[in-house]
UniProtKB/TrEMBL annotation:
Organism for this UniProt entry: Rehmannia glutinosa
Keyword Membrane set for record: yes
Residue spans crossing the bilayer: 46-71, 83-106, 126-144, 164-185, 192-213, 225-244, 265-284, 304-322, 343-366, 386-404, 416-440, 446-468
Keywords assigned by UniProt, alphabetized: Membrane, Transmembrane, Transmembrane helix
Entry membrane topology: Multi-pass membrane protein
Record-stated family: Belongs to the multi antimicrobial extrusion (MATE) (TC 2.A.66.1) family.
InterPro entries: MATE_euk (IPR045069), MATE_fam (IPR002528)
Pfam families: MatE (PF01554)
Subcellular location: Membrane
The keyword Transmembrane helix is annotated on this UniProt entry: yes
Name of protein: Protein DETOXIFICATION
Amino acid sequence: MRDDEPNPHTPSEEIRSHGFHIEQNNHEVEGRYGVEKFIDEGKRQLGLALPLIAVNMLQYSLQMISIMFVGHLGKLPLSSASMATSFASVTGFSVLLGMGSALETLCGQAYGAKKYHMLGVYTQRAILVLMALSIALAVIWYNTRFILLSLGQDKDISAGAGEFNRWMIPGLFAFGILQCLVRFLQAQKIVVPMMIMSGMTTVFHILICWIFVFKIKLGSRGAALANGISYWINVLLFALYIKFSKTCAESFTGLSREAFNGTLSFLKLAIPSAIMICLEYWSFEMVVLLSGRLPNPELETSVLAISLNTCWMVYNISVGLGGAVSTRVSNELGAGNSQRARLAVYVAAAIATSEGLIIGTTTILVRHVWGKLFSNDKEVIRYVAKIIPLLALSDFLDGFQCVLSGAARGCGWQNLCALINLGAYYVVGIPSSVVLAFVFHKGGMGLWTGIIFALSVQSVALIIVNLCTNWDAEVTKAVNRVQPTGTGAQE
């Protein structure tokens, strides 16, 4: 089966049926017309991206659905749950997501190089590291209330956020495992089964939230507990599929002692991956935390939290596109196809531009009704409608940089991207947000404008990096990275 189809047979069947060879692929790319190559690559990426978009949307919707349920309990519960979710993202979810993203490089390039056994080894190694890390993160979550109060946040909001995060701790461990399993399947282009299983989890989550929040009357605590239960359901479904599906027969051959080796090698890529993603995620979440220090903090926090949740929901579309180009680039580099890897980046950039224009226009058109999904408060609804044009612009820029960042993960450029994100968000973005919000008194609008400045800088920097890349050199790096040694693959 061709690699543009989202649910392939086992790797060995794919190779045998098509005589997959590096030389033949490069000859095929160079011998076809440019437009045909472009369209063919677009089909490959969309075949991966559309199910991945669904997977990301469905998994992210677990938190969003919980916030929606809590929002109908009142303004204070909404503010508390929103603050808790922001804090949880900063101190837990983004860290685990970033660490797990190292598998996009490792598993993707190993699959392209036909080192199928290493996919299972890399994934098990990542799970062990993320589980150990989750213990430390759980301690931070347990002290959410104290930390927020020390940061000058509102007393009532901090108390509610602290209670919410304590009830969500069981889900932290499931979330870490889930990130590893997603990358394991994504690298092999097994995306349709992920979409189906994530959809099943979301349906269960709606029922669980309704029961815990309204029937058992646990309130916001029930919504937090529902998050954890649903993450574990998703993990269980993925694990059963990997264990019993023939599509993973070569990539997962059972528990391996190799997973306990090469931890330092994994951390050399995982830590920059975490820094790269956390620097970006933290800046967005910092906007919500800063909103708690504005006049009328309940209104500002509620609106900025709704804005952020909206941004993350749209962002999941871009994450799907970024995951697709990451898979394509890493697979082609591992297979030694430099020209196809470069083409994949150019096609992904074109797709991201089109997607950004569509999403931005749609966001503006629904600005007067969007706030009603989160709150019954008229003041909140009006404020959401006012800030949405800024969200539309940020969605466009964020989508573009997300796709280029996906290509960077496929290449293993996490160290470079971490530096770019540091400059874009913490030299330009956050300082601009603070000045606009607190010096020029632009409130939440000023906070979000600073984020737009950061996204602009990040996008320009990533464009320059991709245009200056020597793709033949990237192939050499990929081949060296996936060569097994006594302690695992070298970076």
